[in-house]
Amino acid sequence: MEDYIDESTLNKIIESIKIDYLSKPNLPKLIIGSGSSITFDYPSMDDLANELNKELRNDETFKKIYPEIKEKGLERGLSSLKKEDIILKDIRKNIAGTILRHEIKNEQKNLYFKLRA
Which domain of life is it from (predicted)? Predict the structure, then answer.
């Protein structure tokens, strides 16, 4: 028989992880799973794809993969790239910058609400 945890316990664990590991400014984050980024108020894959399109739409390699990104999603669209493709550095930099800007904005918003309380 498998052991299960109840929903209340799971929510406490998730909240603890969020507070202890994911709420510190400029802390590198890796969020894996379906919907986890939305739960923690991070940009969705569609948001990241749109940001990449704004920044890289003139890059020839990106022009080739963007139709697949648009049709099948960011992960599937990027899966055709090889690890030696030069554009990966630009993609990583852009995605990291997008997440960091979002994180800073959220920290400023949280600070504002703490000061008002």
Answer: Bacteria
- Whether the CA torsion 28, 61, 56, 72 is positive or negative: it is negative
- Roughly how many angstroms between the first and final C-alpha of the chain, as a whole number? 47
Convert the pLDDT of each residue in 33-78 to its tens digit: 556 666 667 788 899 999 999 999 999 999 999 999 999 999 899 9
Residues 31 and 21: their CA atoms lie apart, in Å, by: 11
For 34: left if phi > 0, alpha if psi spans -120 to 50, otherwise beta; the answer is beta
Q: Is 88 helix (H, G, I), strand (E, B) or coil?
A: helix
From residue 54, alpha-carbon distances to 2, 10, 24, 85 in Å are 47, 38, 28, 20
DSSP letter for 67, please. Answer: H
Q: Judge whether 66 and 75 are in contact, CB under 8 Å.
A: no
Q: Three-state SS for 99?
A: helix
Whether residue 75 contacts residue 45, with contact meaning beta carbons closer than 8 Å, is answered with yes
